[in-house]
Amino acid sequence: MGPSIVIVDDHPAIVDGVRSWCARADPEIRVLASGPRVEVALDEPEAEAVVFDLQLAPGAPAFGDLTRLVDAGRRVVVYSQHADSDTALRCLELGAATYLTKAEGPEHLIPALYAVVEDRPYTPPVLGGAMAADRRPGRPVLSEREREVLLAWFESDSKQLVAERFHLSVKTVDTYIGRVRIKYADAGRPATTKAALVARALQDGLIDLAGL
């Protein structure tokens, strides 16, 4: 049985389309609920991911609702009409698992959902372009070991595999990754999720898109 999700979107055609794509996916992705308000996701704690429309009402993007979902421990796939780099990077900084534009469609949304429920990074084209073009200052200095552990974690399915590779405990791996997060936060570029750390590594030249 495939993963389960909730869709937060105020456009019925978009909701119906995502439902249809999920039903045709293999394995099927189960849609537990859908609706135009963020509460529909907060009321479904068993959902493994949330497809979240960033523009739920006229005006500014719903960054506050995104923060509510992230703070509640939800894996959020932002699925938005906004294609600008600043919006995409802001969502990653707030803790979204990944960011897709609605123009990128099922060929990216479905793989993204499979990836995020397994805590794997997924970088669709628009987000990849935003990461590669980001030249904001504030790059922290990582130790060689911090860099090695971080890159190994990107390449692995679990921290346990990283620990085995370097003959470390999982707790020590957590410590190294925690130090990296602190350094980025201190530099004003927080990275609270694995996807956000991947974004930072891309921005800072630690890895490239081909390496992913």
How would you describe the overall organization of this protein?
- With 212 residues, the protein is α/β, with parallel strands linked by helices.
- The protein is built from ten helices and five strands, in the order E-H-E-H-E-H-E-H-E-H-H-H-H-H-H.
- The chain has helices spanning 12-24, 39-42, 63-71, 85-94, 106-117, 125-133, 144-155, 159-166, 170-186, 194-203; strands at residues 4-8, 30-35, 49-52, 76-80, 98-101.
- It has a five-stranded parallel beta sheet with strand order 2-1-3-4-5, with helices on both faces.
- Helix 7 crosses helix 9.
- It starts with a strand and ends in a 9-residue tail after the last helix.
Keywords:
212 residues, alpha/beta, five-stranded parallel sheet, 10 helices, globular, transcription regulation, Response regulator, phosphoprotein
